[in-house]
Design brief:
This protein is mainly beta. The two termini are 23 Å apart.
């Protein structure tokens, strides 16, 4: 059993580092676009349940996924009360444990409280892409292309609509390393270059307002994930991300910190915890607004390949 004081000390150090970096970046600016995978690291080659002999080519080797549901009831705004994430990846090609090509797709669903049952669908973000992964010693390099879009739901009462379509070619470096025990930490550095950028706001009077995703150029993101075993198959998890985005006339940032406890089996992980996130532009109202979200939620995911 790991003493609670030790966990609290580690959590304090981790959150202090994340908070310091967020404060530095927030002094640069205050916004970035909303990517569904922003708070996780996907790497099919890190699934411990899939082992292909060296140099052997295999097709359609694995399917994995993740899902989450929770509430922003601790702190949020009028557009955020509930959330749901669903995602999956399908490994199309694999060569040994050295390279992989996977198709991935995911959605982020947001609901507010503006109806009789306090659960009113507000917006949905959609994402799909191809991801190639190559092992280079202990680290991994990844290249891919992701297509994304966002749509409003049940927005007639507002008389407003904000729709976006954007896609990017990405490059990512994934670095496993040992902080307190073997391979307990994962770091990922990601660069996105946007090749598709389109945003439509209704009424048209809002079209030329601030934070227009028509002007996306590129973004830089860093993810960190750490885990520590407790009793049996129980684990304690900390993770977070920082993301800065360059536009034609500005540079913006998002960030998140999350702490969870959960259980891990060969079939998957179940986690429950607390998370806080800052979004300079949530991507929902036609007159863009920043939001700080604090919530609790439940997550399930494939072991190893999703962190």
């Amino acid at each position: 059993m790991v003493p609670v004081a030790v966990n609290l000390s580690i959590m304090k150090k981790f959150s202090t580092v994340i908070s310091f970096l967020m404060l530095v970046l927030f002094n640069i600016s205050a916004d970035a676009q909303r990517l569904i995978e922003r708070g996780m690291i996907l790497n099919p080659l890190q699934n411990p349940n899939v082992d292909t002999p060296s140099n052997e080519v295999a097709w359609f080797t694995q399917v994995g996924g993740w899902g989450s549901f929770g509430s922003y009831g601790l702190y949020g705004d009028d557009n955020h009360a509930w959330y749901q994430h669903l995602g999956a990846y399908f490994e199309l090609y694999r060569r040994g444990n050295e390279s992989s090509l996977a198709f991935t797709g995911q959605i982020e669903f947001i609901a507010d409280t503006n109806n009789d049952i306090n659960f009113s669908p507000r917006a949905i973000f959609w994402e799909e892409g191809l991801l190639y992964t190559r092992r280079i010693g202990r680290p991994f390099i990844q290249f891919g292309y992701y297509h994304r879009c966002k749509h409003d739901i049940d927005n007639f009462r507002f008389g407003e609509e904000r729709t976006m379509v954007f896609g990017s070619a990405l490059a990512r470096l994934v670095l496993p390393f040992s902080l307190f025990s073997t391979d307990d930490t994962l770091l990922a550095l990601q660069y996105d270059h946007y090749t598709i950028t389109w945003e439509k706001r209704t009424p048209n009077t809002f079209q030329n307002g601030a934070f227009n995703w028509d002007e996306l150029i590129n973004s830089f993101k860093i993810n960190a994930a750490w885990q520590r075993p407790l009793n049996g198959n129980a684990h304690f998890y900390l993770d977070g991300y920082l993301m800065g985005t360059l536009l034609k006339d500005d540079s913006w940032v998002n960030g998140q910190f999350r702490a969870e406890v959960g259980a891990e089996t060969a079939a998957g992980q179940v986690r429950f915890g607390l998370h806080t996130e800052y979004l300079g532009d949530s991507g929902i109202p036609v007159n863009p607004k920043s939001v700080t979200l604090i919530g609790i939620g439940l997550r399930i995911m494939t072991v190893g390949s999703i962190r």
